[in-house]
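[job 4471] stage=fold_predict status=RUNNING
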Amino acid sequence: MFNPVDLRQLLVLALAGFSFIAANAQTNSANLGLFTDDTDIGTPRHAGSAQYDPAQQSYTVGGGGVNMWFTNDGCHMVWKKVSGDVTLAANINFVGTSKQLHRKACLIIRQSLDADSPYVDAVLHGNGLTALQCRDAKGAQTLEVQSNVNGPRRLRVEKHGKYISMAVAGEGEALHPAGGSYRLDLQEPFYVGLAVSAHNNDAFETATFSNVELVETIPTGTNNGQHLICTLEIMTVASKDRSVVWWTTNLIEAPNWSRDGKSLFFNSRGRIYQLPLTNGTPQVIDSGFAVKCNNDHGLSPDGTQLAVSDQSQGDKHSRIYIFPSSGGAPKLMTPTGPSYWHGWSPDGQTLAFCGERNGEFDIYTIPVAGGPETRLTTAPGLDDGPDYSPDGQYIYFNSERSGRMQVWRMKADGSQQEAVTSDEWNNWFPHPSPNGRWVAFLSYAPEVKGHPANQDVMLRLWSVNDGKIQVLAKLFGGQGTINVPSWSPDSSKLAFVSYQLAP
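[job 4471] inference complete, writing structure tokens
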């Protein structure tokens, strides 16, 4: 039998042991370095794990889960609650081989730990695919901007104000912008951390995050000390997913798609450039004396001629010229200025443009073969951005005649002018798709006047068949984003320029 003294001693020892175990468990839970805790997101079949190695300053994170995509996530996340602006960077390596080419290791910023939470992450896939992914509302579909860098050595996700972007670095490189960003209105505080998803609920995948850097800053509310990053992007319209073609700190604007679908044209610093879509670098096009081209330019239907709006001559007013798309001497089309090209008729015989005459901006046409210009609109206020429907029957344009800038259309001879949109947004630069099914356009907030640069804007799509409008993307852009026709020849993609103001 136990005597009372022995029983008391056993109870003391047991309680001491329990206290040790509890204290040790608290230490392990808290010993996550820069982060506070870790948890499964969603309902992975296999519970996740996280270990921190202070000597190596690295994290080993294991996770299950079906995916981080669509409307719900399944993963394991190491996290911390933060407010303000934040950047998180790490070297990422998967542990072991796997058949799951799309297993994911992420640097993530999310509103909550709910499976369907809004989030943005910089994600490395098992096959090297690298992307900035975003779910911009609770339960919404996840979208992505694919980087043109595969399998980078280091990733960074960074939140500045409402915009979240990604930076990448190859072996031996410093981190540099990946291009593109997402706008996400997060309520403070929110979560930042590391996550791993197996992409298969029956599997368990592990990744290491080393040289992890987490920096929290207070937003300044000013653009002082920031520089502009311009990204040439392509969107697949059906999925709304985006991919980066090229980025630069030089101002670029207004992409056109070549007729063979293999390259893009854009303007920068007064010149026109052509950029192959695969492993190419921009090449300046010989435009003779036309070296102050603005962002109103485009190809003839057969792709052999390029129309530009240039302001290098005489009174420095913009005038329209054409020259071979491979380069050559410009030929004057509009003796009167200012004139800004926007559309080429499908038969190649007529140019549509915006012209200022006697203080009024209206829509005009002029024959390519030569001849007088014809005025098509006479309503007071700005009419701009004319572009032909693919059958040549209509000209779409934007007009402020109703009190707010909206999309309109008219017959090619100027008759039957009618509003296409009538909403609270200021809608600019309508571009019909080559198959005639859609019209893409740019939308500014109600309070924005004109079409300035560096604004919160939306790319939107109007259906010709039923008149429904959908949002393709919310981005930082405006002037230069889609001033000119930018559909791919097969109507499946749009080219555009997005912008970032980065520290």
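[job 4471] summary: Residues 1-29 have pLDDT under 50 and may be disordered.
[job 4471] exit 0
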